Amino acid sequence: MKLLVVVASTRPTRVGPAVADWFLAQVPADPDLEVDVVDLAALALPFLDEPVDAHSGGYVHAHTRAWSARVETADAVVIVMPEYNRGYTAPLKNALDYLADEWRDKPVGFVSYGMTSGGMRAVEAITPVVVALGMVPVGTAVTVHLRRWLGDDGRLHDDGTLAGAAVRMVGDVRRLTALLRPASVPV
Questions:
Q1: Spatial contact of 36 and 68, defined as CB atoms under 8 Å apart
Q2: 144-163: b or e for each residue (b if 16 or more CB lie within 10 Å)?
């Protein structure tokens, strides 16, 4: 199974990479699991600039073709995302909108973070978007309340609560991937 982990924040002052590093450390080592991490800040997709609809698959830009190939090879996705102003980030929406069929039948899990809600409102807001793309959200998530878990050193300090949620979510993503895999095989 190939798991695509998307780090959704691009702000210079972001903690997304620290949250993603913590999450990746919780993913159980398994020779049957390959993890591909994409940081949207490094990916640097311009705002959607394809002249044709994503459903056509007729991408003209090299950055779109590369992004398409990366998503297409993934079996499942985990999005590490902040909540900004009760919503998700524009770069995340942009990265999702670049593609269409590449997302279909992929389970998606969320590792959200924020101050007050731990990013739960952003997850609620993006769920209809991923469903419209044909993705299947898992029922478990990791919710990181930064006031509680982020230390002055910029790292997450977990008492095991978050790690347990991460392991459960990865397990749910893997089980759903196994169930959906036959659906993604062309007929």
A1: no
A2: bbbeebbeeeeebebeeebb
* pTM score of the predicted model: 0.94
pLDDT interval class at 160 (50, 70, 90): confident
- Sign of the alpha-carbon dihedral angle for 69, 71, 74, 80: positive
Q: Which residue, chain included where needed, has tokens 């002052």?
A: 13
Q: What is the pLDDT of residues 62-92, one digit of tens each?
A: 999 999 999 999 999 999 999 999 999 999 9
Distance CA 22, CA 104 (A): 28
pLDDT above 80 (res 139) = yes
Q: Provide the mean pLDDT of the chain.
A: 94
Classify the C-alpha dihedral 179-160-33-134 as positive or negative.
Answer: positive
What one-letter code names the amino acid at 42?
Answer: A
Maximum Cα–Cα distance for the chain, whole Å?
A: 53
Neighbours of 164 (CB within 10 A): 13
Residue 90 and residue 76: Cα distance in Å, rounded? 22
Q: Which residues pair with 79 in a beta bridge?
A: 6, 110
Q: 23: which residues sit within 8 A by CB, 6+ positions away?
A: 5, 78, 80, 111, 142, 166
Query: Is the CB of residue 102 less than 8 Å from the CB of residue 68?
Result: yes
